[in-house]
Fold this sequence. Notes:
By secondary structure, the chain is of the alpha+beta class. The chain has helices spanning 27-34, 40-48, 119-128, 156-169, 241-248, 295-299; strands spanning 2-9, 15-21, 25-26, 52-54, 57-58, 65-66, 71-75, 88-93, 97-102, 137-138, 147-153, 174-180, 187-196, 202-205, 212-223, 227-234, 271-279, 286-290.
Amino acid sequence: MAKKFNSKKSSKKRRQSTFMTTDDIELFNFIQLSIPDKSRNKLKAMLTHKQFKVGKEIITQYNHPLKKDDEVTVSWDGAFKKESYEGVKIIFEDDDLIVINKRCGLLSIGSEKEKRQTVYRVLTHHIQQENPVARLFVVHRLDREASGLMVFAKNKQTQVDLKDSWQKTFPKNLYLAVTEGTIEKDKDTISSFLNESKALIVYSGNNPKLGKKAITNYSVVKKNEFFTLLEATQETERKNQLRVHLKSIGHPIIGDKKYDAKQNPINRTALHLRKINFIHPASDQKMEFETKVPEDFLKIFRHNFYR
């Protein structure tokens, strides 16, 4: 059931062995067959102590399903450690793509003249630790003022394939926002035409000749006399779309000074991409990732209402 094809020491003298599956099988059954000289209890302990990876991901679940040609790597000298980067948390990684959760205030990608840290630079450094000539490819962007999920491709073909399928999947992506004031309608669709000024401010209008069509759907989750927490999806993907649309109905996102917010109780723009969906180009599987509600969003309201 297994092919052992690699055993190595890293620069930190960590001993590792990698096995490849030949059939579909659960992880624990696979490692029992692959490492017959270790007892069942020892292998369970190694799983618990994060000593196994499937592809690039650390797995502790004994019944994790494996498919033919999956790579399983064991660290003989203790737990694998997840890389930690300021402002960027890696949620998922394989040979083709990376999914991350970014903090607010961090640029997705900068220009050649941009000296500030960006998500793109952080992840390029990450992948080049294993392969110095590795390149990263942008699939979509997230406003600097927003936090939340992003996906990057690790090769050009994956980028092309993801972008080809993106139009079908991005309308399912779920945003969270906290706005100023109480939004009266619990559900609504905002539709307008967006146009960007020379000062890089996006405006909402009704003239199709002066902008691009933009459609946003929102649903109120919680509100009080001061603020509203809502979920939103976008049928179109325009620059600053949700921020501009909420301003256009008189309820800018708190902390968003660019679009006329007057209040900032949590010292950030309260916009978060909570859920992301896409089709994995290699496996053709539907991928869905979801984060927790940002803790500072919840602090604005009296009760932990969101589960």
